[in-house]
Amino acid sequence: MNGPYPPPGGPVPGGPPPHGYQPPGYGPAMPPGPPAVPPGYGQMPPARFSAGVHRLHPATALLRAFVFWLIYFVLLGFPLLLTRRGEELVLFAPEAVRRFALVSIPVTVAAVVVGIWGWLALRFWVAGDELVVETGLLRKRRRLIPLSRVQAIDVVRPLMTRLTGLAEVRVEAAGGDRAEICLRYLGRGAAQRLRAELLALAAGLPGHTPEAPEQPFWRVPFGTLFLSLISRLPVAAAGVLFLTALVASLSLLEPGFFSVAVTTLLGLIGSVIAPLVTYGGFTVAISPDGLRLRHGLLETRMQTVPPGRVQAVAIVEPVLWRQRGWARVEATVAGYAGERQALSSVLLPVAPRQVAVALVAQVFPGANVDAVPLLPASAKGLSLDRFAAAGTDDVVFVTRRGLLCRRTEVIAHARAQSVRLTSGPLQRLFGLGTVHVDAPSGPVRVAAIDRDLPEARLIVESTAERARCARAHTRSDPTRWAR
Q1: Which of 1, 4, 18, 31 is nearest to 287 (CA)?
Q2: Which residues touch 280 (CB under 8 Å, ≥6 apart)?
Q3: Where is the chain membrane-spanning (predicted)?
Q4: Rounded-to-integer distance, Cα 388 and Cα 375, Å
């Protein structure tokens, strides 16, 4: 099915948000006494991970042993099966087989021991408001992750684990590069239940709260994704260069052109094939516990971003996409850092622009990016970017920039970490400055460039005041969004 799902009163691209983050039954306050069943959620299932100590799936031991043995076979085992006789290499000679067995039997035993040791060494449990992960047998190490600091929970299924029915749970907590907890591996069903249970606890609900229902929002067709990847100026230029170098190498038999063709081809694979495999089958769903993103052809990923964790978003429109009305939505998500931030920053790889705007309205309830009036940057600026503009309303601060690849960057006032004014030597010469509305480190950086200094100072003061007012109206405990 392409495009928006049939809306049973659901989302209409470009229209009002399908529904807000406020979950049905996730009322503003928990009543005293035993927790109630949220309306429509059915019977409460028994708590699984909120009680007792748990280990990974037993097949994890075998999987680790197999990986250990596979490395041995590639590096040492296979050469043991070869025997040189004169100028020839003979495979599976009797003496080679005996030599291989003599070495492989103790290595196999060692691999099994390593696998079982690693399986026994990791335990986890939920203690009150914390997820506890303990590693080590002889020397134990324990990590305590407050559930209120959980930023996102992903269920990842690499190709090998898809064959064995296993899944990996990655818990992202606030705290920088070492804030990720990997539980590698659980059964697929157990991973889903653990994800739902941790999200419920992080939201301030009982751990045995059933998994929140979801409403499909958008699915990216495979053909649209492929066409969008090749409809980018760098990719188109690389394609022309590849064809030119290939033709030249075949006609002139010049090794230099062949090297250029191979190098360009590798670049094209990285620019087209890799994103195609990563974002193939991309779907977005809206749930009370946040945005649910699913994608991946080989390694499937189910990413859940709880409400309030998206700090800033960008609607990206490359020049070749604008004629088709396409856009990509990127985001800075709290908790992700480094490589994990790069892998998790795409909320929608390609979609009609009105769908991208509707998704931003889901992330920042009440925001209507297209309705925010944008004022152009000062004509005194030295930048060639004549699309640079900025504007604000009571909900968000919006900037636009980019001559060829237009970026509309949006941050909710309640998410602003700081507001600052910078002015370089050339900008001071012309009486200009740049206003930065800072969010946590990530791919989205909201900055209104080349504003006249008096206007820039007014923007700083008004934005800081709007941010203060927005935070004052935010619930007292935003980490427990369901309360």
Answers
A1: 18
A2: 222, 225, 295, 296, 297
A3: 61-81, 101-122, 233-253, 265-286
A4: 9
d(CA 112, CA 59): 11
Instruction: Please tell me the total number of residues recorded for the chain in this structure.
Output: 483
Per-residue burial over 364-403, b = 16 or more CB atoms within 10 Å of its CB, e = otherwise: beebbbeebebeebbeebeeebebbbbbbbebbbbbbbbe
Contacts of 340 (CB under 8 A, 6+ apart): 172, 180
310-317 and 290-295 beta bridge pairing? unpaired
What are the tokens at 479? 């980490």
Residue 475's pLDDT band (boundaries 50, 70, 90)? low
CA distance 237 to 351: 23
Q: Dihedral of CA 153/158/160/164: which sign? A: positive
463-480 in b/e form (b: 16+ CB < 10 A) is: bbebbeebeeeeeeeebb
Provide the pLDDT for residue 56: 93
What φ, ψ does residue 106 adopt, rounded to 5°? -65, -30
The SS3 call for residue 111 is helix
> What distance in Å separates the CA atoms of residue 147 and residue 160, rounded to the nearest whole number?
30
Q: Is the Cβ–Cβ distance between 409 and 398 less than 8 Å?
A: yes
> What is the tens place of the pLDDT at every residue in 149-166?
777 788 988 887 878 889
Task: Give 290-293's long-range contacts (Cβ < 8 A, gap of 24+).
Answer: 290/21, 290/152, 290/199, 291/347, 291/362, 291/363, 292/214, 293/347
Closest alpha carbon to 302 in 221, 390, 196, 176: 196
Residue linked to tokens 């504003």? 451
Q: Is the backbone of residue 350 left (phi > 0), alpha (psi -120 to 50) or beta?
A: beta
Identify whether the C-beta of residue 209 lies closer than 8 Å to the C-beta of residue 289: no
Q: How many CB atoms lie within 10 A of CB 65?
A: 22
In angstroms, the CA 391 to CA 272 distance is 35
| The amino acid at 452 | D
Q: CA 483 to CA 469: how far, in whole Å?
A: 21
The burial class, CB within 10 Å (0-12 / 13-18 / 19+), for 52 is exposed
Residue-wise pLDDT tens digits, 394-417: 899 999 999 889 999 999 998 898
Is there a contact between 470 and 413 (Cβ–Cβ < 8 Å)? yes
For the segment 139-144, the average pLDDT, to the nearest whole number, is 88
The domain segmentation of the chain, as residue ranges, is: 54-211, 212-305, 306-474
Q: Which residues, at least 6 apart from 43, have a Cβ–Cβ distance to it below 8 Å?
A: 37, 210
Q: What is the pTM of this model?
A: 0.76
**Could you give the dihedral angle defined by the CA atoms of residues 131, 67, 280 and 184, in that order, rounded to the nearest 10 degrees?**
-10
